[in-house]
Amino acid sequence: SQQGEEDPQALSIQEGENATMNCSYKTSINNLQWYRQNSGRGLVHLILIRSNEREKHSGRLRVTLDTSKKSSSLLITASRAADTASYFCATDRGNYQLIWGAGTKLIIKP
Amino acid sequence: DAGVIQSPRHEVTEMGQEVTLRCKPISGHNSLFWYRQTMMRGLELLIYFNNNVPIDDSGMPEDRFSAKMPNASFSTLKIQPSEPRDSAVYFCASSGDRSDYGYTFGSGTRLTVV
User: Of A43, A44, B40, B90, which residue is the least packed, with the fewest Cβ within 10 Å?
Assistant: First the structure.
């Protein structure tokens, strides 16, 4: 079941701009993960942030986690056309099952 | 490693036929997951295997669905008989001991039942 919620549902920006997506969840977690899915493809793991971390970077990606607000954000800086995809957050509560959000559809306009 | 390999990539079948989807996880990963993705319901976990043993199959829609993992390098998801509402993209994913490093997904099988 999907208990995470991403917003916005869709985001359209110009190439070169920054894109910010948010994720909220309901229960305490071990870690939170972000995935990208290109049209017609499988999901690709982007970054994992543990519950005791507040911020993490990977290339042009920056993820923040606020466990008091049960929310996370994914920032993609200097967006490129190739970043056009759907982005999903998933929470790990320490068992085997990830809880998935419904995704944010990101479109980068040239 | 070639990643998680799924076959076929696309499957079109008639209602009532048996469908078998196949998955080869990443070598060394001991957890395997089958997911179904649709526009209406998003990503749904169907079944989870750990060390080749089914741990949670509560997401399997009904008795028409069955999954096996005869060894660490192969799993199948079977639908018999198939129905139009089974049309979806089916993903296989694998991970190590914990999901600390995320899941690796296959490219999926797009199933269309007509």
Answer: B40
Cα B24 to Cα A68, A78, A79, A86: the distances in Å are 40, 36, 34, 25
For chains A and B, count residue pairs whose Cβ atoms are closer than 8 Å. 48
Token couple for A20 = 């910010």
DSSP, residue by residue, B74-87 = EEEEEESS--GGG-
Q: Which of A1, A2, A29, A43 to mutate to test the interface with B (most CBs of B within 10 A)?
A: A43
Distance separating alpha carbons of residues A79 and A21, to the nearest angstrom: 13
CA dihedral B42, B56, A46, A101 (to 10 degrees): 30
A42 touches chain B (CB under 8 A): yes
- Closest Cα of chain A to B89: distance in Å? 9
CB B83 within 8 Å of CB B76: no
Q: Which of A98, A100, A104 to mutate to probe the B interface, most B CBs <10 Å?
A: A98
- Phi-psi domain of B24 (left: phi exceeds 0; alpha: psi -120 through 50; beta: other): beta
Q: Which two tokens stand for residue B19?
A: 């469908």
B35-89 confidence digits (pLDDT tens) = 999 999 899 999 999 999 999 999 998 899 999 999 999 999 999 999 999 999 9
pLDDT in tens, A72-100: 999 999 999 999 999 999 998 877 788 99
